[in-house]
Amino acid sequence: MVLSGLRILLAEDNPTNQLVATQMLESLGASVAVALDGVEALDMALTGCFDLFLIDIEMPRMNGIELMRRLRGADGPVAALPMVALTAYVMREHIAAIDAAGADGVIAKPIVSIEQFGADILRFMRRRTALGGGQLGGGVLGGAAHEAQTTGTPAGSACDPAPIDFTVYDALAEMVGPAAMTELLGKVEADLRSASERLEQAVSGPDLGEARAVSHVLISVAGTIGAVKAQELARGLNQAAHDGDAEAVRRNAPVLVAETGRVVDFVHARSERQSA
Fold this sequence. Notes:
Strand content: 5-15%
Radius of gyration: 21 Å
């Protein structure tokens, strides 16, 4: 999907606009958090983990212009993230004020085309990449923006990358189809939860034979859906168990369990979306 893996903060106070934009963004593959006004959006942006900010201009407590100024003036990677303004006012002086506040682009409301919505977001992300000196590649996105789509984290972000390689995940979803994907996600979630529980029990011994067996399962299951980091951690644990290195198993198993939990959360959310 066009926006697969992107984590978007939507700052929008109108319930109807919230619903329409959220449904469009999620259907394009993004995950969305909604802030009800500018003050809440600023707090979420500074404490959360996002790849893109979609900001309504007319909001209570703090308007979108001030919010963008605050974000551009913030410390750390958040100041360099893409920001796109949403507004029903497209007069020249209004657009100039939005540009001056640091927006990478403006999308006019109401949003009537989901395809154009996604295309505009990608185009403005490319603009931010170009401003930051990133090199545009030959695909839909290039440089930092391409990394944001494939890993869920833009270059320079302090956030943990998404637990899934969406190139693998989307190819699998396209290959098996929606109905089979729903069933597959349910099985994957059950396998991951079971493996995580077994691994926690195995480490208490430690039972190296059980750790080896469980990590073998995780290598396969994680790899199937593109959980690259979990797969790599499982390979390392499997090797440690094969080598009889009990201390390495004790040390690394909690890291694998935590990463497996992130994958479970992703799979559960996608499974609910598939079933909706």
